[in-house]
Amino acid sequence: MVKFNNVIVRRPCRAVCDGITSAPELGQPIYEKALQQHDTYIEALKKCGVEVTVLEADERYPDSCFVEDPALITKACAIITNPGAESRNGEKEEIIGAIRKFFPEDKIEYIKDPGTLEGGDVMMVDDTFYVGLSARTNAEGIRQLGEILNKYGMKCVQVPLEKVLHLKTGVNYLEHNNMLVAGEFITKPEFEQYNKVVVPEEEAYGANCIWVNETVIVPEGYPSVLKAVQDLGYETLIVDTSEFRKIDGGLSCLSLRFWA
Ligand code: CIR
Predict the structure, then answer these.
(1) What is the three-class DSSP state of 72?
(2) How many Å apart are CA 179 and CA 225, to the nearest integer?
(3) CA distances from 152 to 43, 50, 108, 146 (A)
(4) Does any ligand 1 atom lie closer than 6 A to the CB of residue 253?
(5) Residue of the nearest CA to atom 1 in ligand 1?
(6) Torsions phi, psi for 88 (to 5 deg)
(7) What is the spatial distance between Cα 42 and Cα 146, in angstroms, rounded to a whole number?
(8) Which residues of the chain have a pLDDT value below 50?
């Protein structure tokens, strides 16, 4: 099944070393290494048959390589979000240009103050969008998103988060009813109907895999996640994201994946 033909990424900037982190004990990202890992990421995406649009690094925003957060792209429209992290809010202005290359103005929607929303909190399962109520995404942001999605015949389901930064930090959909779940997502009632693949606590970061046209990209260093995904029958590609992990970033945050 081919679902995506386009991907947008942004090169990490030097300031990526000062990205927001909840784990300072992991140390700061090493810029050169982050760039190499980003190159490998782009190569892996290309192997999955997508066209990759690479945006220039933006030094004003240390976390701007995580393009998943300032926008959300659905099959019917693109939504410019309103990131809840103050230092990231301006990223929404910088992603619009890239979105306009794929969507006409009347198919671009906006989350507005006082609503906040980050794309990392949104997980697409066909026409249903699960949205984490988090420190970055508030109830008003989710309400606005629901209104937008309803307009296009889609819907959203709110999922209150307890510990993680973003929804997709701990749960990711691999199509075919398969879902990787870690930590608080193992028992959440919202995901009962899916074939849940439980990620052990020590590999929780590995739950952030991405499905791209029947290949699943898995972060390097999470052997039981890799095996579980392969046992489900998927082709896999491995990408090292250790430099991004230091600032709470993973595979999904580094790209916007869509059909246009
Ligand atoms: C942040 O705290 O915003 C970045 N350091 C990490 C963003 C990760 N994005 C994501 O999970 N979608």
Answers:
(1) strand
(2) 12
(3) 33, 25, 12, 10
(4) yes
(5) 20
(6) -110, -10
(7) 32
(8) none
Q: Which DSSP state fits 40?
A: H
- Answer whether 166 contacts ligand 1 (Cβ < 6 A): yes
Give dist(CA 169, CA 217) in Å, integer: 15
Rounded CA separation 6/238 (Å): 20
* CATH number of the domain located at residue range(s) 6-258 in this protein: 3.75.10.10
Angstrom distance (rounded) from CA 64 to CA 99: 15
**Summary count for the chain: helices (H), strands (E):** 5, 15
The strand order across the sheet containing 155-160 reads: 122-125, 128-133, 155-160
- Amino acid identity, residue 105? E
Residues 80, 112 contacting (CB under 8 angstroms): no
Q: Which residue bears the tokens 């491995």? A: 238
Residue spans of the domains in the chain: they are: 6-258
**What is residue 228's predicted lDDT score, i.e. its pLDDT?**
98
Q: Which residues make Cβ contacts (< 8 Å) with residue 63, sequence separation at least 6?
A: 16, 19, 20, 69, 85, 87, 88, 91, 247, 249
Angle ∠(35,74,249) on CA atoms, nearest 5 = 30
Give the residues across from 162 on adjacent strands: none
CA 95 to chain centre: 15
pLDDT tens, position by position, 124-159:
999 999 999 999 999 999 999 999 999 999 999 999
Positions annotated as catalytic residues are: 166, 253
Cα(60) to centroid(ligand 1), Å: 16
Distance in angstroms (rounded) separating the CA atoms of residues 132 and 123? 9
